[in-house]
């Protein structure tokens, strides 16, 4: 394809370096330095995609990151595809694949465009009004329809093979935006010696200067001055320049997030290079020099390919050497578009007319237009355009005294519009800085600041290169001074600066039926002027409601082009002034940001830590299947000889009940509580009595919140008068320690107690089963293990397998049991010693699943599974664990609250299914009468449910209203397709009298 | 990400080192059993939840481990000051006047 619209030698692209990429499968040639948008325009391609709702043909509107229309899919090789890339920001390289979006079967002919014909039946709020009832239609009919009909690009389905980096950066002055204001600010700050960072989202620094080569600064052309300024900044060791870097968010205390694109512009990225890098910058001062964004004008047919912003046309001309058409018409309410017309005319574009809505325009402008042979149409409006896939003509009408006169048609292949400029204050808005309407500037300008920042240049309504340079220099110097530097304010001699002003308008007047006009405000979400007016007619008063009802400004561009136009029209419809209606809030990120950049290194196995016990490697070598518990990975079960989970768990359960099993309990939370007041402290924290517990004995401890609900539990052993070994649940360790510290530091600072987390200091091996003592006894030195000398709930310090140990005689299975604690570094050796010693006695390693079943067979609760933060000790059947003589403990007062003592609370009971082979689903709801009408009254739910090998049937635990008064009652569990029956029973299924512990 | 001054370490450090711990100056009653149901309810559940100046607790959990108090504006998220647990509730207006 030839580049018929390229001006040889013009612009900043490298004409000696052609670049070939594909667009919808066709090869397109551009130049190094092109964006996808400029390369396509150089080849006369304006049609880039179909719109979101009406599938209308759409082209390129802008030349920057504010682009609402020209969104394309880009592909950089297998797995490396990205939807909704802005064609105006993506640089071209050899081999880049670009596809248009949201069209079927093709871009030129799209079936979805039927929506456009029926557009009057798809007004604002259409989805709210139509897809309301019946509820069941949502999943099957409405949602699939909406998803198919709407939408932009397709998400990639493969995992992202790229990696993303992240860094922190601290600096004195961060300057966002490298146009004249930002450059001048960076020069002031940089020359003062302040640590300065200058960032810009484009591939090149310079901003507006890149589109204004005719301006002369300090006796040089704009581009020569730019080169010199950048060279000076690069030469300063305290200045860092970052291109392709977007300031995505401005957060508290001057933290700014930067997303730096590193490789998307490269044909051959260096091996291993990250695709993007997220910078978290903490700046002493921030200078926002983001400039201003040009506003479109709102008229019928303002969305056809070939209709674009006048400033964008000027950028394509000067920066890329591309003419956006052969015959252009300009329509404007601002002086700046006149200069665009002049530049295009001088470059050889036939500019048929400049249409200005203002009746009076400076004679300087009209004179210059006439000299260039451009027809001047002041006091005119645009009332329509023609052209199916590209604008072919524009209809213009005179406006006199508020009356729209007869129209005439002017042929064109490009229509350039300008509705004035909106200061780009998105980042300022992130800081909750307030904006105030400035009638003179016709824009919202920064008002009250909340952070240490300066706003410079067009961002605060200043216009022209000279004003921006001066303002930027002042802002940079002020920022440097605030950081304790001595900073001068540079001055600049600017010639051929093109200043000007304009007026703010709502939709342009028309002689046609405005109700039939397709005058777009939000191009990306297909919101028209009449949608806004409809929303107001239907009762929306707040701009926030108008926004949500019409979806104006809610697309991926966050309304960068549409917000002010939407506001002006809403204000007009409401009969109010713009400042009274107010503005919606911009939120981070400034432009769409990849999940990869935000995730950085935190993906895959680096997403969060995996905690492993000292015995983990042994379990892995044995082929254990693991499950995550809190951040730990724990052996779930140990399949052997090709067993499935059921068979393995049944074997493990049998072994513990008949011989002996061993279990890695190292993940149990452990807190060492020491000090003269240790017993008094535990008295206050736990429900149980501790004062008279003898050293060498343990007790089950129950911890409540102040609200009386169960928080945690565990066995606590007293090693000495002033020393307790507290165990907690695996998941609750950190929470319990935090709670203890809270009370100790802030409620009872008078207590002399020290708390230390020892979870990772001890490896714990549980040995459970009738043969447990037989296996352990030969390994123990310094302790008589007989039942008389070391009974159930005893604790002692001794030596096990040659290692110093804390030995507990405890049971979470109902069998004779011991838990051996040794310093973590000896954990694996201890495990292997016990494993070897147990071989003649049928020792079997078991995992967490078997542990859960064995404890359920005894009715022992798992906090967080059988309790849910609304269960009291009474509900759980744990009243016996409350010290009746104690005057106070955490949560005691709440046990007398009216709701807690009320009848009919849910109580934890056992449940036996009628069919012993059926294992209930955990979480299943329980009803008393299965024949009651829907919706049924649910009286509880299943909390734990397993196949019990010992019972030869299923068992379950459940929280049921008044459960303990329902013993023997048959209840019902409705499940899909069938209703199960089960009988309420005591939650203690195996050895209810606990005889197996007394051996 | 906020920067928070720990009054024990006397250093201003990033937010991930800290955890929030609810409203400050809500002391556990000396004898909870002597309280009426309403009084106990208020202690358990009723908080000031202001729009503006909030006296609240933080813990330097990934640092010295100490609980301390802070005055933060819930609208702007700005800290007026932090102070040690157990110190009396500062009078913010008096502090502002003294600063001026």
UniProtKB/TrEMBL annotation, chain A:
**Single GO term (MF):** sarcosine oxidase activity
Among its keywords, does the record have Oxidoreductase? yes
User: What keywords is this UniProt entry annotated with?
Assistant: Oxidoreductase
Q: Which GO terms describe its biological process?
A: tetrahydrofolate metabolic process
Q: Which residues form the GCVT N-terminal domain?
A: 617-886
Annotated Aminomethyltransferase C-terminal domain residues:
906-991
Show where the FAD/NAD(P)-binding domain sits: 172-437
List the InterPro entries.
2Fe-2S-bd_N, BFD-like_2Fe2S-bd_dom_sf, FAD/NAD-bd_sf, FAD/NAD-binding_dom, GcvT/YgfZ/DmdA, GcvT/YgfZ_C, GcvT_C, GCVT_N
In this protein, which residues make up the domain named SoxA A3?
518-600
Q: Which NCBIfam families match?
A: soxA
Regarding protein family, the annotation reads:
Belongs to the GcvT family.
- Name of the protein in question: Sarcosine oxidase subunit alpha
**Organism name:** Rubellimicrobium rubrum
Lineage of source species: Bacteria, Pseudomonadati, Pseudomonadota, Alphaproteobacteria, Rhodobacterales
UniProtKB/TrEMBL annotation, chain B:
Sorted alphabetically, the Gene Ontology BP terms of this entry are: tetrahydrofolate metabolic process
Classification via InterPro entries: SoxD, SoxD_sf
Under Pfam families, the record lists: SoxD
The name on file for this protein is Sarcosine oxidase subunit delta family protein
Among Gene3D superfamilies, the record links this protein to: Folate-binding superfamily
MF terms (GO), sorted A to Z: sarcosine oxidase activity
